[in-house]
Amino acid sequence: MNNMRKICFLIIAGCFLSVSIVHAQKSVVGIKGGINLTSLTSDQEGDKSLKLGVHAGVYDKIAFNSLLALQPELLYNLNGLKIDYGNNAIIDGETHFNLHYLSLPVKLVVNLTKNLEIQAGPYVGYLIAASTSTNATVLDYFNISSENELDRGVFNTWDYGLTGGLDFYLDPLIIGVNYSAGLNSVAKEDEASYSLLGEAKNSVIQIFVGISF
Questions:
Q1: Residue 136: HSE in the Cβ half-sphere, 13 Å Cα cutoff
Q2: Using CA atoms, how far apart are residues 82 and 79, in angstroms rounded to an integer?
Q3: Which of 40, 47, 68, 172 shows the greatest Cβ crowding within 10 Å of its Cβ?
C-alpha cells in the first residue's frame, strides 16, 4: 500500500512538473460543484447505503493541443457512509458517517468531440474533519437526534486513489459525472475506527455543473 501511495504522489508531482516545462496553448480556469453519492467499500456486513454529500472547488484546464489537456482541481468533498437501520420493531432510522476532505485531483483530458471529453488521473485528499449524525426512533417512542464530532486522529489523514469521468461542454457551462475510487483505508490500524470499518475505502460518484472563465 505504501508503494501505491508513492506512485500516486509521484504521478501528481510529475503532472505539475509537466505544466511548468510545457508551454500550454491555452489555460481555462473555472469553478464547479454538485452532489456526491458516497459509500465505503468494505467486506464487513451491514446495511450500508449511498450517502448524499456535496463538493465544490476550482479547476484549471491546461491545453497541450486540440486533443489533450491537463486539469488540476482543488475541491472540498463531503464523503462518508449512510447506515440504514431499517424499519423494525426496535429501531428505525439512519446514521450518517461524514468525512470532510480537501482533495487535489490531477486529470489527463482527452477531447472525444468538440463538446465531449473524458478525464482520468490520480487524486490526493487531506482529511480536515470527521463527524456522525443520527436521526432514529427506538421502539416507536424514543427519538434520537444527535451530531457528534469525531477524533480525526483515529483516521488516516491522507486519502489517495484514482478518478475519472465525462464532461459535456455548453460553453461556458459544464455538466459532468465523475467516479473516484480510494486506494487507502479510511481507518487507522490499531485504532477503534479500524475495528468498525476495517480496510474500508472511499467510493464517490460526483454529479456536477461548472462554469469556465
A1: 22
A2: 10
A3: 40
- Beta carbons of 121 and 11 less than 8 angstroms apart: yes
What is the average pLDDT value for the chain, to the nearest integer?
83
Which contiguous run of DSSP H or E holds residue 197? helix 192-197
Give residue-wise pLDDT tens across range 154-190: 899 999 999 999 999 988 999 999 999 999 999 888 7
Closest CA to 115 of 64, 61, 167, 52: 167
- Compute the distance between CA of residue 27 and CA of residue 147 in angstroms, rounded to an integer: 42
Report residue 136 as a C-alpha cell. 432514529
Q: Is the pTM of this model over 0.85?
A: no
Rg (CA), the chain: 19
Distance CA 27, CA 48 (A): 41
Beta bridge partner(s), residue 189: none
Return the H-helix or E-strand segment holding 21: helix 2-21
Phi, psi for 191 (deg, rounded to 5): -120, 160
Look at the block and give the residue holding cell 473516484. Answer: 180
Q: Output DSSP code: residue 90.
A: S
Q: How many C-beta atoms surround the C-beta of residue 163 within 10 A?
A: 21
Chain-centre distance of CA 212, in angstroms? 21
Assign residue 139 a region: left if phi > 0, alpha if psi is -120 to 50, beta otherwise?
left
